[in-house]
Predict the structure.
Amino acid sequence: MTQFTLTLHCPERSGIVHAVTTFLVSNGCDIVEHQQFDDDVHGELFLRTEFACAGPATVDDLTREFDVVARDYAMRYRFSDRTPDRLLVMVSKAGHCLNDLLFRWRAGALGAEIALVASNHEDLRPMAEAAGLPFVHIPVAPATKPEAEQRLLDLVREHDIDLVVLARYMQVLSDELCQKLQGRAINIHHSFLPGFKGAKPYAQAYDRGVKYVGATAHYVTPELDEGPIIEQEVQRVDHSHSPRALATVGRDAEALALSRAVRWHCERRVLLNGNRTVVFR
């Protein structure tokens, strides 16, 4: 049995699910998991279906045969097989998110393959190389930023990268690069957006006496930290937490939110809905 995933969205109307299931049954496929969401506000339907085919089948075969159905319902759709996505993880000096991703990858719980690690600093080279991964140092300065970003795009092409993961990569990407990576780059932000942007977020949180610390994983867009949100994690804190203790709690939230977002994206559980996301967990 070969397993695939179909994701789609289209204008809401009757008969959509029937058309999908009829197509799958007629092609000898067995539905393993099915989820859908009817967006009554915008009149859209979002659907994710995992299925298994007993006979020989490929993504290209399914796409070609399904296109007739899709045109009738104005569907935007995608078939995916079980080939794991290849990740390029971008880091700077903080290693907690990289460490968490590496652990989940080696445990087979990430839903993807980490192909390499790149950084604007050398600090995390030992961590990456200890995991058997290539580590590429790409220095970034104002005068060399265009060349550094082109080097990043070269790595994406050379290593057949499906998703770029900014695991506390502390450089702002240019609008042009964000557009080229649209839908293929996830960032982790050190707050439960919106709030406490910029430098020393946990010092700001301490000064305000916050009761929750959080983190937000979102797609990268030219609008800084304003991309569609995939996952958010919060932790309860109180007056006894120092800035250092808040940072410790925050790092846990960051690692958890990022790993969930990466896994859900790679399992085709995240569908874009304008500046929002539909996440089939």
In short: The chain has eight helices and 13 strands. The mean pLDDT is 93.
